[in-house]
């Protein structure tokens, strides 16, 4: 057992590492030989391209690229270069480098990583070397940033940063693999002129209906019963029907108008009725087939009226129309909704649904597993463990899940052209022990930071803490530098007293960006050994919520 000391022993790397070591070895030795270095960045604002520019300010400081770079870098001869909007504070970078050293000791090889920050003066600064060689100068840089006007943050920020510094970032490198938070057409369009030196992931497809019907057409059976609902009112049950509807789609039918909403809602109610009357199945509605987020899901526990066959159909329809009108404020309606059977999953200890997120990396059409998360917990949280036993599962169960995902990748590679990038989704284990693949979420996602530690066999719990200074009577009492220093001091105390790892620490620069007054946001990784309670006799007992590594606040 190798142990990393921050100030207490909190991160442990098992001597045989974990379930995934052979995949790291394969990535390192074979598959990535054509790509010499990784260029990785988050750029989450790309997800909200149509938003008002002012809304991007809320994402300043959001950066989850550092930890994923640790395991991804093992597959590139020249390692990785991480492009950041703002530097991590000294506490995060200190902990990051200790973690990097621990993993290097276990792998018995150097992981080459550079963190690149573009200063307001245009200079490109490599942060790790600055921190190691001149820690006081690094601290001064961070405090200067806290006192300067914020740089513009916009969807193309990291793309433009790469383009401005292309010659430096790719110097003496023949081919680099660029890995954004979520690969989009914008990335492809902006970077295609550099195809002589840059390779890109394939653009992902999260259209639930398209995945479902294509896989079904190829004989794939680990799927729930599903009816897709086109915005034009068509009900779809096959891949041929799906492709025909897509070919004839009319933009006028998607305009967010009362008449189009009525047509859409009527068809959704009809699909719910068909699942009941044709298949005797309860239903679950998702208003947007292509959305990876949960905003469009209509749970029967929250919206019982649309699933209640004792209610008048007109009453159900009116409710659904009103909900669509209130929820979808864009100019266009979703192209397609899905109505699928409501699954009754198995239960795990603690009355937890057997609702899993399965994750991996696709390289040249081959699926490499990275993690399995149990996401059916209270408050939308999910658990993550490096071994099946940590989630009361069997190795056979996990192997079957990974085989299912490998099969899906194989089937879809030609049809969807997806051969390189993240592949992830959600599935249920039903009460009769069937596996039902229900959703796709093909991007790095919120799991990517705790997943990195799990890949290296390190248990952890991820959570978020937001401190509103108004709750403490301190709103407006500090300038931005003082807020940053307070934030950094709290990070240091969390590390010293509890071994807590703070990531996305650039949030500390932007405490005055919130609409709710001065605010400090923390994203934290905690060793489960601290998640204990004392019983009445002073004896330690493990909290049920902490019995497994668990990630809370499931986000994009």
Molecular structure report:
The protein is of the alpha+beta class. It has three domains: 304 residues, no CATH class; 117 residues, no CATH class; 96 residues, D-amino Acid Aminotransferase, Chain A, domain 1, CATH 3.30.470. The chain contains 15 helices and 25 strands. Strands 14, 15, 16, 17, 18, 19 and 25 form a seven-stranded antiparallel beta sheet that branches. A six-stranded mixed beta sheet has the order 6-5-4-3-7-8, with helices on both faces. It has a five-stranded antiparallel beta sheet with strand order 10-9-13-11-12, sandwiched between helices. A hairpin with a 5-residue loop joins strand 23 and strand 24. Helix 4 packs across helix 5 and helix 11 crosses helix 12. It starts with a strand and ends in a 5-residue tail after the last strand.
Shape: globular
Given the structure, what is the number of helices?
15
Q: Could you estimate the helical fraction of the residues in percent?
A: 25-40%
Name the structural class. Answer: alpha+beta
- What are the segments in which pLDDT stays under 50 over at least 5 consecutive residues? 1-19, 533-538, 540-556
N-to-C span: 34 Å
| DSSP E strands, number | 25
Region (Disordered): 537-556
Biased composition (Basic residues): 542-556
